[in-house]
Amino acid sequence: MDRAKMIFAAVVTAIFIAGAILLITRADSSNPDQWARLVYVFGAFEAIAFTAVGWVFGAEVNRQRADSAEKRADQATQEKDTEAEKGRTLAGMVIGRGSTGQPGRPRLEAQGGDTPSVASDPAVDYARTAYNINI
Q1: Cα Rg for the chain, rounded, in angstroms?
Q2: pTM of this prediction exceeds 0.90
Q3: Residue pair 9/57 in contact by the 8 Å Cβ criterion
Q4: Each residue of 111-134: b (16+ CB within 10 Å) or e?
Q5: d(Cα 98, Cα 106) in Å, to the nearest integer?
Q6: pLDDT tens digits for range 87-110
Q7: Which of the ends of the chain has fewer CB neighbours closer than 10 A, N or C?
């Protein structure tokens, strides 16, 4: 497909150059009406030629940008799934700890510091490991 696009662009460019040469050779025409018609037709073909060449080369640039965007989107999706799994694991550890019922233990503990109750908590250890928290 890329080869066909390049051939198409080369043919359109060659026809455009031939038209430009035709206009240059007719530039000394003494008939202004004929010159005006040639310029009018050449202007229409010029628009078609520029559109065709832009389509060929513009598609390549946009394809590269689209591929790059898809890679970034896939990476973001993977990161989201990884973080969601970490969150589910941590939530399960915290909920599991709360359902076993430890008398006298508050439901919410102070964060930070290495107090004995926080330092030995498996949920806190997991959170520190999963999220690279060095407190």
Answers
A1: 35
A2: no
A3: yes
A4: eeeeeeebeebebbebbeeeeeee
A5: 10
A6: 888 777 776 665 555 554 555 555
A7: N
